[in-house]
Design goal:
Elements lengths: L2 H6 L16 E10 L12 H11 L2 H4 L6 E5 L5 H9 L5 H5 L5 E5 L4 E5 L5 E8 L3 H16 L6 E2 L3 E2 L11 E8 L1 H5 L3 H5 L7 E4 L12 E6 L7 H26 L2 H20 L5 H16 L10 H8 L2 H8 L5 H16 L1 H6 L1
Antiparallel strand pairs: 1-5, 1-8, 2-3, 3-4, 4-5, 6-7, 8-10, 9-10
Length: 357
């Protein structure tokens, strides 16, 4: 078994499947922020109060048994690499991985559903699906929410809605987002124009890992900003409408690049990227992500046929530092990670070239 196969076994379900509009929308996330009505927000709670919430959360897998098989994990008992892997899978926040005492996470077996315990809020319920599935993700999150509310009394105000640690989450407590791959808009220099307009619609664009993170490989997260004064269904429908407009813009840019007078230049970029990824001995995360973005564009334009289209999603997780170090069973310096990353990518893209090297 190669290193790629070994890591792939641990990948989340959403990275291995392609959903609706999956050539552009890599994934959909719906997150709900909830707090106990009997305990101060985590930032104002005592250690004993935080521990009481954590202890209560240990019973949630039984509460959620109708929604699948869930397991509770105490963050303080998890290995640092395991915590970082959950960040790289988009299942917990970087902050949750760094500050572990009195914190937990609950994961469904397929990892489509995760619940952070005692992060910024007492509970952060998250559903992560492949492709554009906002309505479906919201329905699943709502069912989980209803199950937990029956056992964990929520802080709720009739006028303001759900009360949260950050004022921007007060109201529905919902953040819905889509992860977009927009290489064609980037190539025709329209990315800033298209994404620059979303703030006018009450939406925000963030990097690969959300707020405060950078974008790699032309991947961006688009999410709602406003949670107060709107129903969840309205917010979901609004985000979906804007997302479909961006999808249309990306498709138009791809059609433009496919025209005979431009096709050769795009093919050259795609096959140069494939060549580097197939034979490189050292790859940084940033370089690998950009080259993988070019290769995925080539697949979507019909230049490359022999690769699984989900390879971009798989590798954007597999090439991260924690995943690479976990498979080797030890901490690795950056230069060793760059070597291992290149070897992994070679194996996934061009196994015959790897055998000959």
């Amino acid at each position: 078994m190669g290193i790629g196969d070994a890591i792939r076994r641990a990948l989340s379900s959403w990275t291995k499947k392609e959903g609706p509009h999956g050539d552009i929308v890599l994934g959909t996330r719906v997150r709900l922020a909830r707090n106990s009505k009997d305990v101060p927000f985590p930032g104002a709670s005592s250690k004993e109060q935080l521990q009481s919430v954590l202890d209560q959360a240990r019973s949630f897998p039984d509460v959620l048994k109708d929604e699948g098989s869930f397991v509770f994990y105490d963050m303080a008992e998890m290995d640092a690499l395991d915590r970082d892997m959950l960040v790289e899978k988009h299942l917990i926040s970087p902050n949750h991985a760094r500050h572990t005492f009195h914190r937990g996470v609950i994961l469904r077996s397929d990892e489509d559903i995760s619940i952070m315990v005692n992060e910024e809020d007492h509970l952060r319920i998250q559903v992560l699906f492949p492709g554009l599935q906002l309505q479906q993700a919201w329905k699943h999150a709502s069912r989980v929410d209803d199950c937990l509310e029956s056992k964990f009394g929520y802080a709720f105000d009739k006028e303001r809605g759900y009360l949260t640690a950050c004022p921007t989450n007060v109201g529905t407590g919902m953040r819905a987002s889509v992860m977009l791959h927009l290489p064609a808009l980037a190539r025709v220099n329209r990315l800033r124009e298209v994404l620059g307009t979303v703030s006018q619609f009450g939406l925000v664009v963030r990097g690969l890992y959300g707020e405060g993170s950078e974008s790699y490989g032309n991947i961006y997260q688009l999410s709602n900003q406003v949670t107060l004064g709107h129903r969840e269904e309205e917010m979901i429908e609004h985000l979906e409408r804007v997302t479909k407009q961006i999808i249309q813009s990306e498709r138009q840019a791809r059609e433009y690049l496919s025209q005979p007078e431009r096709r050769l230049a795009v093919e050259d970029t795609v096959y140069r990227a494939f060549g580097v990824l197939s034979f490189a001995r050292i790859l940084s995360t940033e370089e690998a992500m950009q080259l993988l973005s070019d290769v995925r564009l080539g697949m979507d334009l019909g230049f490359i046929h022999h690769l699984d289209k989900e390879i971009l999603k798989e590798l954007m997780v597999m090439i991260r530092a924690a995943h690479l170090q976990k498979i080797m069973g030890q901490n690795l310096p950056p230069e060793e990670r760059d070597k291992l990353r290149a070897s992994l990518v070679r194996e996934k893209l061009n196994p015959q070239a790897l055998k000959k090297s």
